[in-house]
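Reminder to self: tokens first, then the designed residues, so the page reads top to bottom the way the pipeline ran.
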């Protein structure tokens, strides 16, 4: 049974930092690309950061709005995905979701390929 669970959200002031974690089980974590997405009410879900993980290489891709502030990382030994968020802004307020996509079968940058999702963790940045 696949399980994806986010944690680490909460309330933080503008300029602060927060680290989100995503623990997984039920699938071969090191054979999957992983991503963080976020959504606010009334808007479409958007990509925050994706970590494309292939057998011989891996690379990260970030939304322009978070480049230089957020860092995505993957701990294959612990089946865990992390998102370090620094210099947080009120516009980062959203529900953050972790998701997984199999390595092969299409581009890891295509959000529609992510088929394992968590329930989300809420991040609120106060001004």
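Designed residues (127 positions):
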């Amino acid at each position: 049974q696949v399980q994806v669970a986010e944690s680490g959200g909460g309330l933080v002031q503008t300029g602060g930092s927060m680290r989100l974690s995503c623990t997984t089980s039920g699938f071969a974590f090191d054979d999957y690309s992983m991503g963080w997405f976020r959504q606010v009410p009334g808007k479409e879900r958007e990509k925050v950061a994706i970590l494309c993980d292939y057998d011989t290489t891996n690379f990260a891709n970030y939304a322009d709005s978070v480049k230089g502030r957020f860092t995505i990382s993957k701990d294959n030994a612990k089946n865990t995905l992390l998102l370090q968020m620094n210099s947080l802004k009120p516009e980062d307020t959203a529900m953050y979701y972790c998701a997984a996509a199999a390595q092969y079968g299409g581009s890891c940058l295509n959000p529609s390929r992510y088929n394992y999702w968590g329930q989300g963790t809420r991040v609120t940045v106060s001004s």
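The chain has a mean pLDDT of 95.
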